[in-house]
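Why run this: before we spend reagent on co-expression, it is cheaper to look at a predicted model of the complex and decide which construct boundaries make sense. The entries below are exactly what would go into the expression plan.
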Amino acid sequence: MAHRVLAPPVDQAQVRALRVGDTVTLEGTLYGIRDATLIHLFDRGRATRFDLAGHAVLHTAPNVRRVEKSAAHPAGYVPVCIGTTTSDRMERFTRPLMTRYGVRLIVGKGGLREGSAAAFRELGGAYLAVVGGAAALETTWIEAIEDVDMDDLHPESLWKFRVRGFGPLLVAMDSRGASLYADVKAAAAARRAEVLAGLGIRAK
Amino acid sequence: MKVDLADVEEVAKELYRRALKRLPPDVERGIETLAAAETHPGARRVLATLVENIRVAQATDNLLCQDTGIPIYRVRIGRRVEVDGPGLAAAIRRGCARSTREYAFRSSIVHPITRANEQTSCGPRVPVIEFDFTEREEELEIEMIPKGSGSENNSWLKMAVPADGVEAIKTFVVDCVLEAGPKTCPPTIVGVGVGGTADLCVHLAKVAATRALGTRCEDPEGARLEEDLTRAVNRLGIGPQGLGGDATAFAVHVELAATHITMNPVAVNMQCHSARRARAVLRPGGVEYGF
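The model came back. C-alpha coordinates follow.
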Protein backbone atom coordinates (compact mmCIF):
# COMPACT_ATOMS: atom_id res chain seq x y z
CA MET A 1 0.00 0.00 0.00
CA ALA A 2 2.01 2.91 -1.30
CA HIS A 3 1.15 6.60 -1.29
CA ARG A 4 2.04 8.55 -4.42
CA VAL A 5 1.92 12.19 -5.35
CA LEU A 6 1.13 12.62 -9.04
CA ALA A 7 1.25 15.85 -11.04
CA PRO A 8 -0.49 15.14 -14.37
CA PRO A 9 0.21 14.73 -17.19
CA VAL A 10 1.44 11.27 -16.19
CA ASP A 11 2.76 8.51 -18.42
CA GLN A 12 1.53 4.96 -18.75
CA ALA A 13 4.30 3.55 -16.54
CA GLN A 14 3.30 5.82 -13.65
CA VAL A 15 -0.29 4.64 -13.89
CA ARG A 16 0.63 0.99 -14.31
CA ALA A 17 2.63 1.22 -11.07
CA LEU A 18 -0.59 1.94 -9.12
CA ARG A 19 -2.19 -0.94 -7.26
CA VAL A 20 -5.64 -1.24 -5.69
CA GLY A 21 -5.32 -0.13 -2.06
CA ASP A 22 -2.63 2.49 -2.82
CA THR A 23 -3.41 6.13 -2.22
CA VAL A 24 -2.74 9.08 -4.51
CA THR A 25 -2.64 12.82 -4.03
CA LEU A 26 -2.97 14.93 -7.18
CA GLU A 27 -1.14 18.21 -7.71
CA GLY A 28 -1.54 20.77 -10.47
CA THR A 29 -4.15 20.20 -13.15
CA LEU A 30 -7.41 18.28 -12.83
CA TYR A 31 -10.20 18.41 -15.40
CA GLY A 32 -13.89 18.24 -14.47
CA ILE A 33 -16.39 16.40 -16.68
CA ARG A 34 -19.99 15.30 -16.36
CA ASP A 35 -22.82 13.49 -18.20
CA ALA A 36 -23.62 16.29 -20.64
CA THR A 37 -19.94 17.04 -21.35
CA LEU A 38 -19.36 13.43 -22.34
CA ILE A 39 -22.60 13.08 -24.30
CA HIS A 40 -21.66 16.15 -26.34
CA LEU A 41 -18.05 15.01 -26.84
CA PHE A 42 -18.77 11.45 -27.86
CA ASP A 43 -22.38 11.32 -29.10
CA ARG A 44 -22.76 14.75 -30.69
CA GLY A 45 -19.42 15.15 -32.38
CA ARG A 46 -18.08 18.07 -30.43
CA ALA A 47 -14.42 18.47 -29.46
CA THR A 48 -12.59 20.33 -26.72
CA ARG A 49 -9.67 22.67 -27.17
CA PHE A 50 -8.09 21.19 -24.01
CA ASP A 51 -5.30 18.63 -24.30
CA LEU A 52 -6.33 15.88 -21.88
CA ALA A 53 -3.45 13.51 -22.74
CA GLY A 54 -2.01 11.94 -19.59
CA HIS A 55 -4.47 13.82 -17.41
CA ALA A 56 -6.92 12.99 -14.66
CA VAL A 57 -10.62 13.79 -15.05
CA LEU A 58 -13.02 14.26 -12.15
CA HIS A 59 -16.69 13.28 -12.38
CA THR A 60 -18.17 16.56 -11.18
CA ALA A 61 -20.35 19.58 -11.84
CA PRO A 62 -19.38 22.37 -9.50
CA ASN A 63 -21.14 25.20 -7.71
CA VAL A 64 -19.37 28.34 -8.93
CA ARG A 65 -19.78 32.10 -8.71
CA ARG A 66 -19.30 34.25 -11.80
CA VAL A 67 -16.80 37.12 -11.31
CA GLU A 68 -14.72 39.49 -13.42
CA LYS A 69 -11.78 37.71 -15.05
CA SER A 70 -8.53 38.37 -13.20
CA ALA A 71 -5.15 36.74 -12.53
CA ALA A 72 -6.68 34.92 -9.55
CA HIS A 73 -9.79 33.94 -11.50
CA PRO A 74 -8.66 33.53 -15.12
CA ALA A 75 -11.89 31.80 -16.20
CA GLY A 76 -14.14 34.32 -14.48
CA TYR A 77 -15.37 31.78 -11.95
CA VAL A 78 -14.73 31.32 -8.23
CA PRO A 79 -15.24 27.83 -6.80
CA VAL A 80 -18.12 27.70 -4.30
CA CYS A 81 -18.49 23.98 -3.73
CA ILE A 82 -16.83 21.32 -5.84
CA GLY A 83 -17.52 17.67 -5.19
CA THR A 84 -17.78 14.34 -6.93
CA THR A 85 -20.73 12.64 -8.56
CA THR A 86 -21.61 8.97 -9.11
CA SER A 87 -19.32 7.58 -11.83
CA ASP A 88 -21.47 4.64 -12.86
CA ARG A 89 -23.70 6.71 -15.16
CA MET A 90 -20.67 7.61 -17.28
CA GLU A 91 -19.35 4.06 -17.60
CA ARG A 92 -19.49 3.90 -21.41
CA PHE A 93 -17.30 6.99 -21.83
CA THR A 94 -14.19 5.63 -20.08
CA ARG A 95 -12.75 3.90 -23.13
CA PRO A 96 -13.31 6.78 -25.59
CA LEU A 97 -11.85 9.24 -23.06
CA MET A 98 -8.73 7.09 -23.03
CA THR A 99 -8.47 6.26 -26.74
CA ARG A 100 -9.49 9.62 -28.21
CA TYR A 101 -8.13 12.00 -25.59
CA GLY A 102 -5.41 9.98 -23.82
CA VAL A 103 -6.95 10.35 -20.34
CA ARG A 104 -5.08 8.16 -17.80
CA LEU A 105 -6.90 8.63 -14.51
CA ILE A 106 -10.57 8.86 -13.64
CA VAL A 107 -11.45 10.38 -10.29
CA GLY A 108 -14.94 9.59 -9.08
CA LYS A 109 -17.10 7.90 -6.50
CA GLY A 110 -19.02 4.64 -6.52
CA GLY A 111 -16.76 2.99 -9.11
CA LEU A 112 -17.02 1.91 -12.72
CA ARG A 113 -17.87 -1.44 -14.30
CA GLU A 114 -16.17 -4.20 -16.23
CA GLY A 115 -15.92 -2.20 -19.47
CA SER A 116 -13.85 0.44 -17.72
CA ALA A 117 -11.79 -2.19 -15.92
CA ALA A 118 -10.95 -3.70 -19.31
CA ALA A 119 -10.02 -0.26 -20.72
CA PHE A 120 -7.75 0.40 -17.73
CA ARG A 121 -6.12 -3.00 -18.25
CA GLU A 122 -5.61 -2.70 -22.00
CA LEU A 123 -4.72 0.98 -22.25
CA GLY A 124 -3.11 1.69 -18.87
CA GLY A 125 -5.52 3.58 -16.65
CA ALA A 126 -6.80 3.66 -13.07
CA TYR A 127 -9.78 4.82 -11.04
CA LEU A 128 -9.19 6.97 -7.98
CA ALA A 129 -12.00 7.10 -5.42
CA VAL A 130 -12.97 10.28 -3.60
CA VAL A 131 -15.25 10.04 -0.58
CA GLY A 132 -18.54 11.12 -2.15
CA GLY A 133 -20.64 13.69 -0.35
CA ALA A 134 -17.59 15.22 1.33
CA ALA A 135 -17.54 18.20 -1.00
CA ALA A 136 -16.84 20.90 1.57
CA LEU A 137 -13.55 19.14 2.25
CA GLU A 138 -12.88 18.49 -1.44
CA THR A 139 -13.38 22.18 -2.22
CA THR A 140 -10.45 23.06 0.07
CA TRP A 141 -8.21 21.08 -2.31
CA ILE A 142 -9.14 23.31 -5.28
CA GLU A 143 -6.98 26.40 -5.71
CA ALA A 144 -8.62 27.95 -8.73
CA ILE A 145 -10.70 27.45 -11.83
CA GLU A 146 -8.09 28.06 -14.53
CA ASP A 147 -10.21 27.63 -17.62
CA VAL A 148 -13.54 26.34 -18.88
CA ASP A 149 -14.66 24.92 -22.21
CA MET A 150 -18.11 23.96 -23.54
CA ASP A 151 -19.64 26.37 -21.02
CA ASP A 152 -22.93 26.42 -22.91
CA LEU A 153 -23.53 23.19 -20.96
CA HIS A 154 -23.07 25.01 -17.63
CA PRO A 155 -22.70 23.63 -14.97
CA GLU A 156 -21.82 20.49 -16.96
CA SER A 157 -19.00 22.34 -18.72
CA LEU A 158 -15.49 20.98 -19.15
CA TRP A 159 -13.62 22.55 -16.24
CA LYS A 160 -9.89 22.99 -15.77
CA PHE A 161 -9.10 23.14 -12.06
CA ARG A 162 -5.78 23.91 -10.40
CA VAL A 163 -5.55 21.68 -7.34
CA ARG A 164 -3.22 21.44 -4.37
CA GLY A 165 -3.08 18.35 -2.18
CA PHE A 166 -6.12 16.80 -3.89
CA GLY A 167 -6.46 13.66 -1.82
CA PRO A 168 -5.64 11.21 -0.46
CA LEU A 169 -7.62 9.32 -3.10
CA LEU A 170 -7.94 5.55 -2.97
CA VAL A 171 -6.85 3.51 -5.98
CA ALA A 172 -10.03 1.44 -6.29
CA MET A 173 -9.50 0.07 -9.83
CA ASP A 174 -6.06 -0.51 -11.32
CA SER A 175 -4.42 -1.40 -14.65
CA ARG A 176 -4.24 -5.09 -13.81
CA GLY A 177 -8.02 -5.31 -13.84
CA ALA A 178 -8.41 -5.35 -10.06
CA SER A 179 -11.49 -3.57 -8.69
CA LEU A 180 -12.43 -3.09 -5.05
CA TYR A 181 -16.01 -2.52 -6.16
CA ALA A 182 -16.17 -5.84 -7.98
CA ASP A 183 -14.70 -7.59 -4.91
CA VAL A 184 -17.20 -6.01 -2.51
CA LYS A 185 -20.10 -6.67 -4.89
CA ALA A 186 -19.17 -10.34 -5.24
CA ALA A 187 -18.76 -10.77 -1.48
CA ALA A 188 -22.13 -9.09 -0.81
CA ALA A 189 -23.87 -11.24 -3.44
CA ALA A 190 -22.35 -14.32 -1.80
CA ARG A 191 -23.93 -13.28 1.53
CA ARG A 192 -27.40 -12.78 0.03
CA ALA A 193 -28.71 -16.28 0.78
CA GLU A 194 -27.52 -16.14 4.38
CA VAL A 195 -28.99 -12.67 4.91
CA LEU A 196 -32.36 -13.78 3.49
CA ALA A 197 -32.24 -16.91 5.65
CA GLY A 198 -31.88 -14.58 8.66
CA LEU A 199 -35.21 -13.06 7.57
CA GLY A 200 -36.77 -16.51 7.37
CA ILE A 201 -36.64 -16.64 3.58
CA ARG A 202 -35.18 -19.37 1.46
CA ALA A 203 -33.26 -17.66 -1.37
CA LYS A 204 -34.35 -18.33 -4.93
CA MET B 1 -53.32 33.75 11.24
CA LYS B 2 -52.97 35.28 7.79
CA VAL B 3 -49.84 34.26 5.93
CA ASP B 4 -47.69 36.99 4.38
CA LEU B 5 -46.35 35.62 1.08
CA ALA B 6 -43.25 37.82 1.30
CA ASP B 7 -42.36 35.89 4.48
CA VAL B 8 -42.90 32.59 2.68
CA GLU B 9 -40.57 33.64 -0.15
CA GLU B 10 -37.83 34.55 2.34
CA VAL B 11 -38.34 31.29 4.23
CA ALA B 12 -38.18 29.22 1.02
CA LYS B 13 -34.93 30.93 0.10
CA GLU B 14 -33.42 30.53 3.55
CA LEU B 15 -34.48 26.88 3.91
CA TYR B 16 -32.60 25.84 0.76
CA ARG B 17 -29.42 27.47 2.10
CA ARG B 18 -29.80 25.93 5.54
CA ALA B 19 -30.56 22.47 4.20
CA LEU B 20 -27.46 22.47 1.99
CA LYS B 21 -25.11 23.70 4.69
CA ARG B 22 -26.06 22.08 7.96
CA LEU B 23 -26.70 18.38 8.53
CA PRO B 24 -29.53 17.61 11.00
CA PRO B 25 -28.18 16.60 14.43
CA ASP B 26 -29.74 13.12 14.22
CA VAL B 27 -27.79 12.42 11.00
CA GLU B 28 -24.57 13.82 12.44
CA ARG B 29 -25.02 11.56 15.47
CA GLY B 30 -25.85 8.69 13.13
CA ILE B 31 -22.50 9.03 11.35
CA GLU B 32 -20.64 9.20 14.67
CA THR B 33 -22.47 6.11 15.95
CA LEU B 34 -21.58 4.12 12.83
CA ALA B 35 -17.97 5.33 13.02
CA ALA B 36 -17.67 4.17 16.63
CA ALA B 37 -19.00 0.69 15.79
CA GLU B 38 -17.19 0.14 12.46
CA THR B 39 -14.64 -2.70 12.42
CA HIS B 40 -13.32 -2.43 8.84
CA PRO B 41 -10.21 -0.15 8.70
CA GLY B 42 -10.98 1.34 5.27
CA ALA B 43 -14.57 2.01 6.29
CA ARG B 44 -13.38 3.75 9.45
CA ARG B 45 -11.30 6.10 7.29
CA VAL B 46 -14.30 6.88 5.07
CA LEU B 47 -16.55 7.60 8.06
CA ALA B 48 -13.84 9.79 9.63
CA THR B 49 -13.75 11.77 6.37
CA LEU B 50 -17.52 12.32 6.59
CA VAL B 51 -17.12 13.63 10.14
CA GLU B 52 -14.29 15.90 8.97
CA ASN B 53 -16.44 17.16 6.08
CA ILE B 54 -19.18 18.23 8.48
CA ARG B 55 -16.59 20.21 10.44
CA VAL B 56 -15.12 21.81 7.29
CA ALA B 57 -18.59 22.74 5.97
CA GLN B 58 -19.29 24.57 9.24
CA ALA B 59 -15.88 26.21 9.45
CA THR B 60 -15.97 27.43 5.83
CA ASP B 61 -19.74 28.06 5.77
CA ASN B 62 -19.93 25.84 2.69
CA LEU B 63 -22.32 23.27 1.28
CA LEU B 64 -21.90 19.73 2.63
CA CYS B 65 -22.25 18.17 -0.82
CA GLN B 66 -22.02 19.73 -4.26
CA ASP B 67 -25.31 18.15 -5.29
CA THR B 68 -27.97 20.78 -4.72
CA GLY B 69 -30.50 18.07 -5.50
CA ILE B 70 -34.08 18.28 -6.64
CA PRO B 71 -35.64 20.84 -4.31
CA ILE B 72 -38.68 19.50 -2.47
CA TYR B 73 -40.84 21.71 -0.24
CA ARG B 74 -43.42 20.12 2.04
CA VAL B 75 -46.02 22.52 3.35
CA ARG B 76 -48.28 21.68 6.29
CA ILE B 77 -51.11 24.09 6.95
CA GLY B 78 -52.66 24.52 10.39
CA ARG B 79 -56.38 24.65 11.17
CA ARG B 80 -56.65 28.38 11.61
CA VAL B 81 -54.35 29.53 8.85
CA GLU B 82 -55.58 31.76 6.07
CA VAL B 83 -53.44 31.63 2.97
CA ASP B 84 -53.61 32.29 -0.77
CA GLY B 85 -52.79 28.75 -1.99
CA PRO B 86 -51.58 29.44 -5.54
CA GLY B 87 -49.74 32.50 -4.19
CA LEU B 88 -48.02 30.30 -1.61
CA ALA B 89 -46.72 27.92 -4.28
CA ALA B 90 -45.50 30.84 -6.40
CA ALA B 91 -43.73 32.39 -3.40
CA ILE B 92 -41.91 29.12 -2.69
CA ARG B 93 -40.83 28.91 -6.30
CA ARG B 94 -39.53 32.48 -6.23
CA GLY B 95 -37.63 31.81 -2.99
CA CYS B 96 -36.05 28.67 -4.45
CA ALA B 97 -34.88 30.50 -7.58
CA ARG B 98 -33.55 33.46 -5.57
CA SER B 99 -31.61 31.15 -3.28
CA THR B 100 -29.98 29.54 -6.31
CA ARG B 101 -29.02 32.85 -7.92
CA GLU B 102 -28.07 34.84 -4.84
CA TYR B 103 -25.97 32.13 -3.19
CA ALA B 104 -24.52 30.82 -6.50
CA PHE B 105 -25.89 27.33 -5.94
CA ARG B 106 -25.58 24.98 -8.87
CA SER B 107 -28.91 24.65 -10.65
CA SER B 108 -29.22 20.90 -11.00
CA ILE B 109 -32.59 21.06 -12.74
CA VAL B 110 -33.11 20.57 -16.47
CA HIS B 111 -36.06 20.05 -18.79
CA PRO B 112 -36.37 16.25 -19.11
CA ILE B 113 -36.41 16.25 -22.91
CA THR B 114 -34.47 19.31 -24.08
CA ARG B 115 -32.11 19.08 -21.04
CA ALA B 116 -32.16 22.90 -20.93
CA ASN B 117 -31.10 24.33 -17.56
CA GLU B 118 -32.84 27.58 -16.53
CA GLN B 119 -30.10 28.09 -13.87
CA THR B 120 -32.79 28.68 -11.23
CA SER B 121 -33.27 25.18 -9.75
CA CYS B 122 -36.77 25.47 -11.21
CA GLY B 123 -38.50 23.91 -14.19
CA PRO B 124 -41.84 22.33 -15.02
CA ARG B 125 -43.31 21.08 -11.68
CA VAL B 126 -40.01 21.69 -9.89
CA PRO B 127 -39.45 22.60 -7.11
CA VAL B 128 -41.67 19.78 -5.96
CA ILE B 129 -44.23 21.35 -3.63
CA GLU B 130 -46.43 19.10 -1.49
CA PHE B 131 -49.36 20.34 0.57
CA ASP B 132 -50.74 18.72 3.69
CA PHE B 133 -52.44 19.79 6.91
CA THR B 134 -51.48 19.84 10.57
CA GLU B 135 -53.72 19.66 13.65
CA ARG B 136 -51.91 22.63 15.13
CA GLU B 137 -53.87 25.86 15.01
CA GLU B 138 -51.87 28.90 13.94
CA GLU B 139 -48.90 27.31 12.25
CA LEU B 140 -47.62 26.96 8.73
CA GLU B 141 -44.76 24.49 8.54
CA ILE B 142 -42.42 24.20 5.55
CA GLU B 143 -39.88 21.39 5.31
CA MET B 144 -37.21 21.55 2.61
CA ILE B 145 -35.36 18.53 1.21
CA PRO B 146 -32.63 18.92 -1.41
CA LYS B 147 -32.84 15.35 -2.71
CA GLY B 148 -29.53 14.25 -4.16
CA SER B 149 -29.50 12.37 -7.45
CA GLY B 150 -26.96 9.70 -6.55
CA SER B 151 -29.49 8.26 -4.15
CA GLU B 152 -32.62 9.23 -6.11
CA ASN B 153 -31.36 7.37 -9.19
CA ASN B 154 -31.64 4.24 -7.06
CA SER B 155 -35.40 3.98 -6.78
CA TRP B 156 -37.55 0.98 -7.54
CA LEU B 157 -41.16 -0.17 -7.52
CA LYS B 158 -42.30 -3.77 -7.57
CA MET B 159 -45.95 -4.66 -7.96
CA ALA B 160 -45.72 -7.98 -6.13
CA VAL B 161 -48.89 -10.03 -5.71
CA PRO B 162 -50.52 -11.26 -2.48
CA ALA B 163 -49.27 -14.82 -3.08
CA ASP B 164 -45.68 -13.49 -2.87
CA GLY B 165 -46.34 -12.46 0.74
CA VAL B 166 -44.24 -10.23 2.99
CA GLU B 167 -41.28 -12.33 1.90
CA ALA B 168 -41.40 -10.56 -1.46
CA ILE B 169 -41.14 -7.21 0.33
CA LYS B 170 -38.13 -8.29 2.37
CA THR B 171 -36.34 -9.94 -0.56
CA PHE B 172 -36.95 -6.89 -2.74
CA VAL B 173 -35.42 -4.51 -0.18
CA VAL B 174 -32.30 -6.68 0.22
CA ASP B 175 -31.93 -6.94 -3.56
CA CYS B 176 -32.34 -3.18 -4.03
CA VAL B 177 -29.58 -2.53 -1.48
CA LEU B 178 -27.38 -5.01 -3.36
CA GLU B 179 -28.22 -3.37 -6.69
CA ALA B 180 -27.52 0.12 -5.35
CA GLY B 181 -24.17 -1.04 -3.98
CA PRO B 182 -21.73 1.89 -3.92
CA LYS B 183 -23.79 4.21 -6.15
CA THR B 184 -25.97 5.78 -3.42
CA CYS B 185 -23.13 7.09 -1.24
CA PRO B 186 -23.71 4.65 1.61
CA PRO B 187 -24.29 4.61 4.54
CA THR B 188 -27.86 5.27 3.47
CA ILE B 189 -31.34 5.56 4.85
CA VAL B 190 -33.23 2.90 2.91
CA GLY B 191 -36.76 4.22 2.43
CA VAL B 192 -39.37 1.53 1.91
CA GLY B 193 -42.98 2.10 0.90
CA VAL B 194 -45.38 -0.76 1.42
CA GLY B 195 -48.95 -0.91 0.12
CA GLY B 196 -51.14 1.80 -1.37
CA THR B 197 -51.40 2.47 -5.09
CA ALA B 198 -48.28 2.40 -7.26
CA ASP B 199 -47.70 6.15 -6.93
CA LEU B 200 -48.55 6.29 -3.21
CA CYS B 201 -46.17 3.38 -2.60
CA VAL B 202 -43.28 5.27 -4.22
CA HIS B 203 -44.22 8.45 -2.36
CA LEU B 204 -44.20 6.56 0.95
CA ALA B 205 -40.71 5.26 0.17
CA LYS B 206 -39.56 8.88 -0.21
CA VAL B 207 -41.29 9.89 3.05
CA ALA B 208 -39.52 6.98 4.77
CA ALA B 209 -36.12 7.85 3.26
CA THR B 210 -36.35 11.45 4.44
CA ARG B 211 -37.61 10.76 7.97
CA ALA B 212 -35.34 11.71 10.89
CA LEU B 213 -33.06 8.98 12.19
CA GLY B 214 -34.33 7.50 15.44
CA THR B 215 -37.98 7.80 14.43
CA ARG B 216 -40.03 4.64 13.89
CA CYS B 217 -42.89 3.63 11.68
CA GLU B 218 -46.15 4.33 13.55
CA ASP B 219 -47.56 0.96 12.51
CA PRO B 220 -46.15 -1.83 14.74
CA GLU B 221 -45.82 -4.26 11.82
CA GLY B 222 -43.96 -1.61 9.85
CA ALA B 223 -41.69 -0.94 12.85
CA ARG B 224 -40.88 -4.64 13.12
CA LEU B 225 -40.03 -4.73 9.44
CA GLU B 226 -37.71 -1.76 9.96
CA GLU B 227 -35.77 -3.59 12.69
CA ASP B 228 -35.47 -6.84 10.76
CA LEU B 229 -34.40 -5.18 7.53
CA THR B 230 -31.94 -2.78 9.20
CA ARG B 231 -30.14 -5.77 10.69
CA ALA B 232 -30.31 -7.70 7.43
CA VAL B 233 -28.89 -5.08 5.06
CA ASN B 234 -26.06 -4.32 7.45
CA ARG B 235 -24.91 -7.93 7.15
CA LEU B 236 -24.20 -7.54 3.41
CA GLY B 237 -20.78 -5.93 3.94
CA ILE B 238 -21.22 -3.22 1.27
CA GLY B 239 -20.00 -0.58 3.70
CA PRO B 240 -19.44 3.19 3.45
CA GLN B 241 -19.00 4.26 -0.20
CA GLY B 242 -19.47 0.60 -1.16
CA LEU B 243 -15.81 -0.08 -0.46
CA GLY B 244 -16.57 -2.76 2.14
CA GLY B 245 -17.45 -2.51 5.83
CA ASP B 246 -20.20 -2.89 8.42
CA ALA B 247 -22.00 0.44 7.90
CA THR B 248 -24.17 -0.05 4.81
CA ALA B 249 -27.27 1.73 6.14
CA PHE B 250 -28.08 3.97 9.09
CA ALA B 251 -31.49 2.36 9.04
CA VAL B 252 -34.25 0.94 6.90
CA HIS B 253 -37.35 3.12 7.30
CA VAL B 254 -40.79 1.84 6.38
CA GLU B 255 -44.00 3.77 5.69
CA LEU B 256 -47.13 1.87 4.82
CA ALA B 257 -50.65 2.33 3.54
CA ALA B 258 -53.54 -0.06 3.10
CA THR B 259 -53.73 -1.64 -0.31
CA HIS B 260 -56.10 -3.54 -2.60
CA ILE B 261 -56.95 -7.22 -1.98
CA THR B 262 -55.14 -8.12 -5.20
CA MET B 263 -52.04 -6.00 -4.59
CA ASN B 264 -48.75 -6.20 -2.67
CA PRO B 265 -46.67 -3.24 -3.84
CA VAL B 266 -43.26 -2.36 -2.44
CA ALA B 267 -41.05 0.59 -3.36
CA VAL B 268 -37.53 1.59 -2.36
CA ASN B 269 -36.10 5.11 -2.38
CA MET B 270 -32.59 5.70 -1.10
CA GLN B 271 -31.21 8.61 0.90
CA CYS B 272 -27.43 9.10 0.87
CA HIS B 273 -25.40 9.80 4.03
CA SER B 274 -25.79 13.53 3.42
CA ALA B 275 -29.39 13.25 4.62
CA ARG B 276 -30.14 16.94 4.44
CA ARG B 277 -33.36 18.64 5.46
CA ALA B 278 -34.42 21.92 7.03
CA ARG B 279 -37.68 23.09 8.54
CA ALA B 280 -39.36 26.37 9.31
CA VAL B 281 -42.51 27.03 11.28
CA LEU B 282 -44.32 30.31 10.65
CA ARG B 283 -46.43 31.53 13.57
CA PRO B 284 -48.07 34.87 14.34
CA GLY B 285 -44.98 35.76 16.41
CA GLY B 286 -42.43 34.99 13.69
CA VAL B 287 -40.42 32.22 12.04
CA GLU B 288 -38.62 29.40 13.85
CA TYR B 289 -36.00 27.37 11.98
CA GLY B 290 -35.00 23.81 12.76
CA PHE B 291 -34.58 20.41 11.16
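The beta strands of chain A are 3-6, 23-33, 56-59, 63-66, 77-81, 105-108, 126-129, 142-149, 158-173. The CA atoms of residues 12 and 119 of chain A lie 13 Å apart. Bring this page to Monday's planning discussion.
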